[in-house]
Amino acid sequence: MANFFDIKARKEAAAANGSSSKAPATKETTRSQPWVEKYRPKSLSDVTAQDHTITVLQRTLQSSNLPHMLFYGPPGTGKTSTVLALAKELYGPELIKTRVLELNASDERGISIVREKVKDFARMQLSNPSAEYRTRYPCPPYKIIVLDEADSMTQDAQSALRRTMETYSKITRFCLICNYVTRIIDPLASRCSKFRFKSLDQGNAKKRVEGIADMEGVKLEDGAADALIKCSEGDLRKAITFLQSAARLVGETQVKGDDEDAMDVDHDAKMVTVKIVEDIAGVIPEKTIEGLVKAMQPRSKGLVYEAVANVVTDMIADGWSATQVIAQLYQSIIYNEAIPDIQKNKIVLLFSESDKRLVDGSDEHLTILDLALRTSNIMAGA
Amino acid sequence: MALLVDKHRPRSLDQLSYHPDLSARLRSLAQSGDFPHLLVYGPSGAGKKTRIVATLKELYGPGVEKIKIDSRVFQTTSNRKLEFNIVASIYHLEITPSDVGTYDRVVVQDLLKEVAQTQQVDQSARQRFKVVVINEADHLTRDAQAALRRTMEKYSPNLRLILVANSTANIIAPIRSRTLLVRVAAPTEAEICDVLAKSGKKEGWPLANELNMRIAKESGRNLRRALLMYEAVHAQNEKVTDTTPIPPPDWDALIGQVAKEIMEEHSPARILQVRAKLYDLLTHCIPPTTILKTLTFKLVEMIDDALKADIIKWAAFYEHRIRTGTKVIFHLEAFVAKFMRILEEYLMNMDF
Ligand SMILES: Nc1ncnc2c1ncn2[C@@H]1O[C@H](COP(=O)(O)OP(=O)(O)OP(=O)(O)O)[C@@H](O)[C@H]1O
Ligand SMILES: [Mg+2]
Asked: For the domain bounded by A202-253+269-281, which CATH number is listed?
């Protein structure tokens, strides 16, 4: 198999340049691939931590009768990977191109265009796979249309889609994917079986990350894996990107068994530490947050303003993201037992307001400064 | 004659004078061959762009410095033609999609796919992928950001993005999830002094430590601003010493005057007078947020401690309004009126 690919790749390359290039292209590709792509699940059973969804899908795979589907959940939880794996298992490598149409937010998705594309695609003749091929892949007699990132489609485009779905329902199945299920209009959502993709839980995500680290020959300090998971908040893609970047930082560049001197790996590779992970993830050092909280402690008004304004100015100049500041400040105040609940009740309202303002694009400096001063004021018993 | 900011701009990672850890990190990423998508963020004037160009050079060699500017025309679905500028070397492109406002999605959709689908023209290029630098990524519309999502995954063998932003708050979660976040902190005051001294040495200017320290402080840790001030001081004075005054930028001086007028008198007539100056600033393209912030911090210095937090509260309130509203001047003026009222009430209570 590998040889076949090499020759083909080489021929293509040669034809393209008019010269014979010697480097086999495929190896180069896997090496320069970001790990998130390299370790994208290849089959349904390879998808981590979405057991319920996967079981149901595997069952439908057997019965060969797929409903329309709606996948929803936060980023990096395996939605796109799952549908790609599903398609591969249904049709195999030869048919997948003619049986699966993927439209995502980077495609023009106005009403008429979607209708046109779906129409053309649905009408294409179904090619007949050989009997032998059929024993390996179910090849059900319909096509799949994947609308990835469907929450960025306008309401109008979505309602137009209803008709299209019905018109071709005999020969096509739709799979809609989105982050926010509430952005999908009801009539559309109700036509689909819904599959919720959960934020990846600690245990499973950790196993996956450790597995990848192992395959790449990266050593993790005690607790570093936990830090990776904690900083990525259930988003496995983020965790993998952090891991890759951390690995580069400690100078691990050899892929296990990929090079002649793979044996050197164990000698040189330094450990990925918790601190490196937190650094990469943009976590603000505990000390900095403590500094802010300390400046907010009730004192005379002038002192508080001076102190808070100085700390905030520095934090902004240091480029800490305001969202991160708010998140960490929240943690440190809400879990502080010395602050009475009645004050906390008032304080959380401020956090809600500030978060909204940031999303609206408000100035980070003013927003954080205002939040800190008003919180301090409440802590002073105002 | 080139400005100091450009003339002495470091061209490679090892010429960068501050944040050595970050430079090392970027180097290790650039040398690894599996460079991720990046989201580079930090305050303006912190040196994000310089660092990115240096990283590109590490990736591809000196070829990235040979750039040309292309103008391209895009067509929207409603058949409107958009003209759009692209800065490009044979290895990378640099675009500012926010130039075309809400049509940014069209540009992002078309351009990136096109880039992704063409091979490197230079057969001996060190990297198989090309890099697209997207400026002002925090100003991209939601639609444009959504359009990036699958493109970033699907075309990753041929394409890497470097998004540049002041803040990550407006970047949607799925994009943040697809990029490695790189924070570029502003240089400290000491680090700024260091850069100024080096630049001055190259120009043959005598060293004035005290002056440099004052400039660093004035600049608010903004290196670009510091260099501009440094150059201005030298352009305007025959002999520069530690005590040479630093001329503030015109707009800053004008806002200072506005602050003074607001403090002096609290009346509708005065609001009217101030409004003319605010208009003036706006027509000179000073961003409304800069106006409001500069004014706020100047005012806060002039009032009693007891009032400071309250003024910040209203400044934040009206800045938010500026962002979400449409008529900037309304909100600037409302802030001025609010300030006058708070101050007036406070002074009256003091009298008793
Ligand atoms: N459940 C999972 N099991 C294994 N790997 C996963 C899983 N979820 C995410 N990953 C990893 O993260 C990467 C991104 O996953 P995927 O593209 O499926 O996310 P998504 O849910 O479609 O996210 P988005 O909403 O941002 O499009 C994958 O390439 C894979 O490396
Ligand atoms: Mg996806």
From this structure: 1.10.8.60
The reply to whether residue A361 touches residue B169, judged by beta carbons under 8 angstroms, is yes
Nearest-angstrom CA–CA distance, B5 and B226: 9
Pick from B150, B305, B313: which is nearest to A149 by CB?
B150
Give A-chain residues touching B25 at CB under 8 angstroms.
Answer: 245, 248-249
Which DSSP state fits A315?
H
Q: What confidence tens digit (pLDDT) does each residue in B236-273 have?
A: 888 888 888 888 888 999 999 999 999 999 999 999 99
Give tens-digit pLDDT for A273-317.
Answer: 999 899 888 899 999 999 999 999 988 777 899 999 999 999 999
| DSSP secondary structure, A98-166, as one string | HHEEEE-TTS---HHHHHHHHHHHHHSPPPPPPHHHHHHS---SSEEEEETTGGGS-HHHHHHHHHHHH
Q: Choose the closest CB to A75 out of B167, B174, B306.
A: B174
Which residues are within 8 A (CB) of B100 and not within 5 positions of it... i.e. 6 or more apart?
Answer: B74, B82, B84, B106, B107
CA of B34 to the centre of ligand 2 (A): 21
Average pLDDT score, chain A: 83
Residue from A196, A237, A240, A242 whose mutation best tests the ligand 1 pocket (most atoms within 8 A of CB): A237
pLDDT at residue A271 is higher than 60: yes
A319 class by beta-carbon count within 10 Å (0-12 exposed, 13-18 middle, 19+ buried):
buried
Query: Could you tell me the distance, in angstroms and rounded to a whole number, from the CA of residue B113 to the centre of ligand 1?
Result: 22
The arrangement of secondary structure in A36-196, i.e. its CATH architecture, is: 3-Layer(aba) Sandwich (3.40)
Query: What is the CA angle B95-B100-B102, rounded to 5?
Result: 120
In the block, tokens 């999605």 appear at: B105
- Cβ B51 vs Cβ B15: under 8 Å: no
Measured by CA distance, the residue closest to atom 27 of ligand 1 is A75
Residue B110 with chain A: CB contacts under 8 Å: none
CA of A229 to the centre of ligand 1 (A): 14
pTM for the whole structure: 0.85
Residues sharing a CB contact under 8 Å with residue A90, sequence separation 6 or more, in sequence order: A61, A66, A99, A137, A138, A139, A140, A144
Helix (H) or strand (E) holding B93, with range, is: strand B92-95
A330-346 pLDDT per residue, tens:
999 999 999 999 999 99
Domain ranges, residue B312:
250-348
CA distance A336 to chain B (A): 23
Q: What is the predicted ipTM?
A: 0.88
Question: Has residue A1 got a pLDDT over 70?
Answer: no
Beta-sheet pairing, B38-41 with A271-272: unpaired
Domain check: are B175 and B286 in the same one?
A: no
DSSP label of B119: P
Query: Ligand 1 mean position to B174 CA, how many Å?
Result: 11
Find the residue in A nearest to B306 (Cα). Answer: A301
Q: What's the Cα-to-Cα distance from B206 to each of A111, A375, B238, B242, rounded to whole Å?
A: 67, 48, 12, 10
Sign of CA dihedral A260, A263, A268, A272: positive
| For chain A, domain boundaries | 36-196, 202-253+269-281, 286-380
Atom of ligand 1 nearest to the CA of A74: 25
